[in-house]
Automatic annotation (TrEMBL):
<comment type="function">
    <text>Putative odorant or sperm cell receptor.</text>
</comment>
<keyword id="KW-1003">Cell membrane</keyword>
<dbReference type="Pfam" id="PF13853">
    <property type="entry name" value="7tm_4"/>
</dbReference>
<keyword id="KW-0675">Receptor</keyword>
<dbReference type="InterPro" id="IPR017452">
    <property type="entry name" value="GPCR_Rhodpsn_7TM"/>
</dbReference>
<keyword id="KW-0716">Sensory transduction</keyword>
<feature type="transmembrane region" description="Helical">
    <location>
        <begin position="59"/>
        <end position="81"/>
    </location>
</feature>
<feature type="transmembrane region" description="Helical">
    <location>
        <begin position="26"/>
        <end position="47"/>
    </location>
</feature>
<keyword id="KW-0297">G-protein coupled receptor</keyword>
<dbReference type="InterPro" id="IPR000276">
    <property type="entry name" value="GPCR_Rhodpsn"/>
</dbReference>
<feature type="transmembrane region" description="Helical">
    <location>
        <begin position="237"/>
        <end position="260"/>
    </location>
</feature>
<feature type="transmembrane region" description="Helical">
    <location>
        <begin position="101"/>
        <end position="120"/>
    </location>
</feature>
<feature type="transmembrane region" description="Helical">
    <location>
        <begin position="197"/>
        <end position="216"/>
    </location>
</feature>
<feature type="transmembrane region" description="Helical">
    <location>
        <begin position="272"/>
        <end position="292"/>
    </location>
</feature>
<keyword id="KW-1133">Transmembrane helix</keyword>
<dbReference type="GO" id="GO:0004930">
    <property type="term" value="F:G protein-coupled receptor activity"/>
</dbReference>
<feature type="domain" description="G-protein coupled receptors family 1 profile">
    <location>
        <begin position="41"/>
        <end position="290"/>
    </location>
</feature>
Amino acid sequence: MEQENDTQFSDFILLGLSEEAAMQPLLFWLFLSMYLITLAGNLLIILTTIAASHLHTPMYFFLSSLSFSDICFISTTVPKMLLNLHIQDKSITYKGCLSQMYFFILFAEMDIFLLSVMAYDRFVAICHPLRYATIMKPQLCGLLLLASWIMSLLDSLLRGLLVLRLSFCTDLEIPHYFCEINQVIQLACSDALLNVIEMYVATVLMGVIPLSGIAVSYSRIVSSILRITSARGRYKAFSTCGSHLSVVCMFYGTGLGVYLSSATTPNSRARAFASVMYTVVTPMLNPFIYSLRNKDMKGALTSLVSTVTFSERSECFSWGRRSSHG
């Protein structure tokens, strides 16, 4: 028991993506740029959804929630990595590691549930367009969002509590740039069988089942689209869900890539590089996918930017006139 208490207050070492000193500045500026782009893009989606009244619909309500989740998701890992790269210190405290694991799981699962809810929203919009307003009421949207938060909070809390029961020895090096729960469990000296079982159960409940729900929704959507006679009608129906389908494929595709890379190669550093795709690249690209492929969002973004630009120019002009009179 004494050994467990000692190791709990030891620092873990995050080996990162590369141990070469020459690569550290390049990685710092690369990930800083990607982080700032992610923050700006997702904040713009949220602000546009709030500002444009015609976007006050269930689809954009869930999209803005996804953008908020993506901001929190990437903020769980990247700032700590940037700090370690900047100060050349790869350590993270036990409590910091546990907190990072908790929030990483929380917002990763929020993304999964939100993508599932958005698939259901698209299913109702395309397969039951006349009943869409009566089915997707604000109360139901709020309940779906609340349920996503509750399930994510409970599972991340359960996983965190199960990690708390583990004791760690002297080898505390994590071949990753954040505290991935699978890597941390492998460092445990005590029996981690319960943790492994929970991980497999959570993968089915929080991963496979939501993905199956998305697959069922899109199978019904595709069958409905194929029954539409006009090519224009088919294109319009598909355009309402094309952005979401692209994000789903990218999110689950990169997640599957991480799983396959860890299964086919013993090199944990390869897993870390693969993880960049769904932990950093996917949250960064989501706003671009939704803004470029969605006419309503593109128009609202253009209108918001034009309004802000016009306001700034008007303020500058007014300030210039006051200065000249002064």
